[in-house]
Amino acid sequence: MSSGKSSNKAVKVRQIGSPQRRDRRQRETLIGLKLNKIGRVAELPDTPQIRGMIAKVSHLVQMMED
């Protein structure tokens, strides 16, 4: 049952851009990533779904190194 899941891996994401004047779906993606203010950092599980969400708003977020 563990196929497709990363074992205890996490990715840190920082919001660097404003969702103003963006498509509604991009704002909703930021909220789904637990981001809604510039400078906020979220630590999320490293899954393909989260990676896809990050890719959709890659111009608004920055992946942080541990």
Characterize the structure shown.
It is built from two helices and three strands, in the order βαβαβ. The model has no long low-confidence stretch (mean pLDDT 90). The longest helix has 9 residues, at 24-32. 27% of the residues lie in helices and 23% in strands. The chain is α+β, with helices and mostly antiparallel strands. It starts with 9 loop residues before the first strand and ends with a strand. It has one domain: Ribosomal Protein L30, Chain: A (2-Layer Sandwich). The chain has a three-stranded antiparallel β-sheet with strand order 2-1-3, with no helix packed on it. The protein has helices spanning 24-32, 48-56, and strands spanning 10-15, 41-45, 61-64.
SSE topology sketch:
Layout: E1 10-15, H1 24-32, E2 41-45, H2 48-56, E3 61-64
Antiparallel strand pairs: 1-2, 1-3
| First-to-last CA distance | 28 Å
What topology, given as strand order, has the largest sheet?
Answer: 2-1-3
Poorly predicted ranges (pLDDT <50, ≥5 residues)? none
Domain tally: 1
CATH superfamily: Ribosomal protein L30/L7
CATH-derived topology? Ribosomal Protein L30, Chain: A
Query: Topology as H/E string?
Result: EHEHE
By CATH, the architecture is named: 2-Layer Sandwich
Summary of the model, kept short:
The protein is built from two helices and three strands; from the N terminus they run E-H-E-H-E. 27% of the residues lie in helices and 23% in strands.
